[in-house]
Write a structure and sequence with these properties.
The chain is α+β, with helices and mostly antiparallel strands. The chain is built from two helices and four strands. It folds into two domains: 60 residues, N-terminal domain of TfIIb (Single Sheet), CATH 2.20.25; 28 residues. It has a four-stranded antiparallel beta sheet with strand order 1-2-3-4, with no helix packed on it. Belongs to the eukaryotic ribosomal protein eL43 family.
Length: 91
């Protein structure tokens, strides 16, 4: 997509440029640690190096809401693991 299809307003063109840069940027892969995660479709991101596929934001790899939900999922998993460890200690 070129910027030719957006008209009438500098703000919206600037916003489009920021989104496009996030869209084409490479992000860090959590699996192999390389900076090679690229957007292959809306909200679908794939690592060029190891081929792992991520679900992310439509135009950026991680969204604010995605980070919040990941954090809460991590804390739920952590509390479940400690609960299992505690019960195994009691037995
Ligand atoms: Zn990878």
């Amino acid at each position: 997509m070129s910027s030719g299809n957006i008209r009438y307003g500098a703000t919206i063109r600037k916003r489009k440029r920021a989104v496009t840069q996030q869209k084409i940027a490479l992000y860090k892969c959590e699996s192999c640690g390389k900076n090679s995660v690229e957007r292959i479709s809306t909200a679908i991101w794939r690592c060029r190096h190891c081929g792992k596929i991520y679900a992310g934001g439509a135009y950026t790899f991680t969204t604010a809401m995605g980070a919040i939900s990941k954090h809460s999922l991590d804390s739920v998993g952590k509390s479940q693991r400690t609960a299992v460890q505690d019960s195994s200690k009691q037995v």
